[in-house]
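We were asked to recover a plausible sequence for a given structure. The inputs and outputs are reproduced exactly as logged, with field labels preserved.

PROBLEM: sequence recovery
POSITIONS: 379
GIVEN STRUCTURE:
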């Protein structure tokens, strides 16, 4: 498959790289240390069209497509994975409204989300329902012309700062996945509140919170799609989200490679640089090979999405391979640094912490293997 970039794709990639190098990378360690959410940077990213990259311009997006989105996200995540996941979820929150929303919902909610005027969040996971959405306990009950939502969502990216949330809740008891529905919920709705703000191991420049729905009132017109469409909507969003996490993983993996390579070229032991030792050369070779393979898997999934072809299996393959490769890469890169890689204020130490969650969120590696096997048996 030929993934030669078009002139437009190459220009967006260079624009993202230049922006990340100047406006993100110099500050990323400080944001991580102080747990700072740099809202001003997100506004700049919005002005560059990075928040609704797969949404038509008529609805506020930049309509650059999935491949261009992947390329831009890789550059942002190279500089800081926390900003990368914020960008990924912002794009993810747009897609359900574009694909399943009414025209009124698109105008009211999608335009400000895709333009970056407002930040979005996606609420699926609960304390007792992570990989198994059929165990979801958050309920939505229709009363007159409004739904009343009750439940708790956890690990919600952008929770502190997003005014618009896509919430998956149960509208039918005993229906398993078929009993779930999706809602557009505004933060200022009665009964909506932010609970615990998580203090995370990595990705500390992103916001991760608990969302509490206590008799939260949601207008009936904020039902997304039809009752019972919730699982389908969530899975459709996660397919695109997995291209995002694969891209985030790729950006981080490239950063690990550059850090390890540059260190190996400078650090001397036994009278020669580390780059002269075969053990180090083999680690660098493995890292570079995994990055190349992950790149092609990720762009293939994005390519299929841009063609409007099915890409569920390919997105899961890309997410699985890129995230697991990243964790191996971060391990090897830190090993090359030795003790210096274990010290705070080292970018490789931050990358090591940031990498760990990529095999967990937006579907664990185990869930990706279930999806891949199911899709393979169906062929």
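RECOVERED SEQUENCE:
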């Amino acid at each position: 498959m030929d993934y030669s970039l078009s002139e437009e794709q190459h220009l967006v990639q260079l624009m993202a790289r230049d922006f990340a190098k100047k406006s993100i990378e110099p500050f990323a360690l400080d944001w991580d240390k102080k747990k700072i959410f740099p809202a001003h940077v997100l506004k700049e990213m919005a002005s560059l069209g990075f928040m609704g990259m797969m949404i038509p311009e008529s609805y506020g997006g930049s309509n650059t497509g999935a491949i261009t989105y992947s390329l831009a996200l890789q550059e942002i995540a190279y500089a800081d994975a926390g900003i990368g996941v914020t960008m990924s979820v912002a794009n993810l929150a747009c897609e359900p409204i574009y694909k399943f929303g009414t025209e009124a919902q698109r105008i009211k909610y999608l335009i400000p989300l895709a333009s970056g005027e407002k930040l979005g969040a996606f609420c699926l996971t609960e304390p007792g329902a992570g990989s198994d959405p059929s165990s979801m306990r958050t309920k939505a009950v229709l009363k007159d012309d409004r739904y009343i939502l009750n439940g708790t969502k956890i690990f919600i990216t952008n929770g502190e700062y997003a005014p618009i949330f896509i919430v998956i809740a149960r509208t039918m008891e005993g229906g398993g996945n078929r009993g779930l529905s999706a809602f557009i919920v505004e933060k200022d709705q009665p009964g909506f509140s932010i609970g615990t703000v998580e203090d995370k191991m990595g990705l500390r420049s992103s916001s991760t919170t608990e969302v509490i729905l206590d008799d939260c009132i949601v207008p009936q017109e904020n039902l997304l799609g039809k009752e019972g469409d919730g699982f389908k909507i969530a899975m459709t969003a996660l397919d695109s989200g997995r291209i995002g996490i694969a891209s985030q993983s790729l950006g981080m993996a490239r950063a690990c490679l550059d850090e390890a390579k540059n260190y190996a070229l400078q650090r001397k032991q036994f009278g020669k640089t580390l780059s002269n030792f075969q053990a180090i050369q083999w680690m660098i070779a493995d890292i570079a090979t995994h990055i190349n393979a992950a790149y092609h898997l990720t762009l293939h999934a994005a390519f299929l999405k841009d063609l409007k072809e099915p890409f569920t299996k390919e997105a899961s393959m890309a997410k699985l391979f890129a995230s697991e490769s990243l964790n191996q890469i971060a391990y090897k890169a830190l090993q090359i640094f030795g003790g210096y890689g274990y010290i705070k204020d080292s970018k490789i130490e931050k990358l090591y912490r940031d990498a760990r969650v990529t095999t967990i969120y937006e579907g664990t590696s185990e869930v990706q293997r279930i999806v891949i096997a199911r899709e393979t048996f169906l062929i």
